[in-house]
C-alpha cells in the first residue's frame, strides 16, 4: 500500500510538472480568460458541461464564479448544465442521453456566450453534441480533455489537453487549470484594487 501511495504522488507531481513545463499553457489560459471576460462584459454567460467527475468540475467552477473564488464581489453569469435532474431526465427520456447538454445549449446559449466542455477522453457524445450546437449558435468553445484531445479538439476554439492518458491525472490537471481560470476571470471582471 505504501508503494502505491508513493507512486501516485510521483505521478501527480510529474503531471503537474509537465503542465508547468508546457510553454503554450500560459498563453491558452490568457486567451481563455479573455474569451470569458469579454463574454461577461458584454452581458453574456458561461455554460459548463461534463460527465461524472467532469460534471463535478462543471458545477464546481460555475459555483466559484456565481458565488466567489478568492474574494467577495458581485456574482458572475455561469451555469452548470449538469445540475437540473428534471431537465436531464426529461431530455434523456425524450431524446436520449447524447442530447442532455445540446438541448440545454440550444435553449440557453446565445451568440457571444462561452461553452466550457469537459471530457477526459474528448469523445463523450453528449459533450460533442453540445459543442456542435454551441458553434452553430455563434458561441465560443473552451475544451478540457486528456492528451489526445479526442474529437473535441477540432470543435474547440481552445483546448486544454492534459499531459496524461490516466483519468485521475487528467482530472487533477483540469482542476488546477479550472481554478486558474476562475481566479483570473474574477480578477479580470472585478479587480480587487478597483474599490
UniProtKB/TrEMBL annotation:
It is an enzyme of class 5 (isomerase). One of its GO terms (biological process) is carbohydrate metabolic process. Gene3D superfamilies: Glucose-6-phosphate isomerase like protein, domain 1. Substrate binds at residues 51-53, 64, 93-94, 119-121, 124, 171. Its cofactor is Zn(2+). It comes from the Bacteria. Binds 1 zinc ion per subunit. GO terms for molecular function: carbohydrate derivative binding; D-sedoheptulose 7-phosphate isomerase activity; zinc ion binding. Belongs to the SIS family. GmhA subfamily. The reaction produces a racemic mixture of D-glycero-alpha-D-manno-heptose 7-phosphate and D-glycero-beta-D-manno-heptose 7-phosphate. This is Phosphoheptose isomerase. It comes from Thermomonas carbonis.
